[in-house]
Amino acid sequence: MRRSLCLGALATASGPGAPDRSVRRVDPGASKVFFSETFGDGWESRWTPSEWKKSDGTQGTWKLSAGKWFSNEAEDQGIQTAEDSRFFGLAANFESFSNSGKELIIQYQAKYEKDIECGGGYVKVGPKLEDPTTFGDPTPYNIMFGPDKCGYTKRTHLIFSYKGKNVLKKTDLPYKQEGEGTSHVYRLTLKPDNTAKVEIDGEQVYDGSLKEDWEMLAAKEIKDPDDKKPSDWVDDSMMDDPEDKKPDGWVEEKRIVDANAKKPDDWDDEEDGEWEAPMIDNPEYKGEWTIKRISNPAYKGFWEAKKIANPEYVDDDSLYKYDDFGFIGFDLWQVKGNTIFDNVIITDDVAEADKFVAKWKALSEIEKAKKKEEDDKKAEEAKAAASSDSKDDDDDDDADSED
After folding, report:
1. How many structural domains is the chain composed of?
2. How much is the average pLDDT of 125-140?
3. Would 290 be classed as within a structural domain?
4. Is 17 domain-assigned?
5. What are the φ and ψ backbone dihedral angles of 323, each rounded to 5 degrees?
6. Rounded to the nearest 10 degrees, how much is the dihedral formed by the CA atoms of 64, 67, 71, 77?
7. What is the CATH number of the domain that holds 100?
8. 3-state secondary structure of 152
9. 161 has which bridge partners?
């Protein structure tokens, strides 16, 4: 039977030869796994469904499911969004800790059984919730991480909260949920040197600086507001050629009166109106004349105000640090549901996170093999259907020929 854990408590032994079922608290500063969940027995006691959208009837429900492809159904079960076009909220509190001085890993597994069309599959991690039933979009968080899609916009979100503002990464991270129905594992590693690393399916897709790739801090330099472009500054790189003149015989009239046209003999001005010769294309027409452009010898380049130190810039070497991590939750809108989440872990121990990656790899191989079987079967059925349609068309042609 698979077990789920929410660490912060450990069983110890006491008495000669007999297990002691008592529990002792562990110093959070010494913990290696702050939270872990595989959605085994009793998961409902550790997680609280949100009621944020219950009053307007758009609150979705959660159920256990391993999906259509799995190795061991009981072992591979996760929580699944049960309906389409719903908000889904689910949160779990755990013993609060700070990541000060720690390398923190946030990792989980997600599988889109359907193409979500528009919606998210991310987690939010933040300070402990007073009432998890109110968890929803307005709830403050420290980090939001995971896949998000709406139409053609697809990315893996990584948002950090800084001084009350949720700051998006300047450029998007790759999106792996391409509707194939297999599991993916997402890992964020947040480091005390103010860098972050993102791995998807064990492959590194980003490794960079919070200071450079998120606009948490004010810019070090700004344009000097007192610096003005000189009045004689020339920023046109090209100019009209002063030597270029339109030729004297250049014809720009596209249409002319037909000089050979004659008023019909039976034309009656009183009945037909005043006769006018028709217009025809001008055989001398040469097109609209334009002056030749040449490089401007006075061109000085693109003008830009000089940079000066930004008086509002304040460096911060603790961008990565949060005083309180105490909850993890899913706060999602999904047009198409049936997304499965599993194997959630928050830790500062890479080896512990790697155990779940190894578990994902074993499941992924089975999912891909079963997907191939299904795809091959569909291809054979499509081929057979096409062959049958072709035979029917041939039979119809033969019948027509006999008729």
Report:
1. 1
2. 97
3. no
4. yes
5. -75, -25
6. -10
7. 2.60.120.200
8. coil
9. 166
Question: Exposed, middle or buried: residue 354 (CB in 10 Å: 0-12, 13-18, 19+)?
Answer: middle
Would 39 be classed as within a structural domain?
A: yes
- Within a domain: residue 242? no
- CA–CA distance, 220 with 287 (Å, rounded to integer): 54
What does the DSSP 8-state code read for residue 241? -
Distance CA 392, CA 390 (A): 5
How are beta strands 307-309 and 221-223 bridged, if at all? antiparallel
Whether 284 contacts 249, CB under 8 Å: no
At 250-275, the pLDDT tens digits run 998 999 999 899 999 888 888 889 98
Task: Please give the C-alpha separations between residue 325 and each of 128, 343, 360, in angstroms, as whole numbers.
Answer: 7, 19, 26
- Residue 111 domain boundaries: 9-217+319-380
CA distance 349 to 155: 27
Whole-angstrom distance, CA of residue 393 vs CA of residue 118: 41
**Phi first, then psi: what are they for 68, rounded to 5°?**
-85, -20
Please answer whether residues 248 and 286 qualify as being in contact, where contact means their C-beta atoms are separated by less than 8 angstroms: no
Contact 278, 262 (CB under 8 A): no
- Identify the CA nearest to 149 among candidates 167, 175, 171: 175
The pLDDT tens digits for 342-384 are 999 999 999 999 999 999 999 999 999 999 998 889 888 888 8
Give the integer Cα–Cα distance in Å for 41 and 52: 26
Amino acid identity of residue 400, one-letter, is D
Q: Is 141 annotated as a binding residue?
A: yes
SS3 label, residue 351: helix
Asked whether residue 122 is marked as a ligand-binding residue, the answer is yes
Check the annotation: does 124 bind a ligand.
Answer: yes
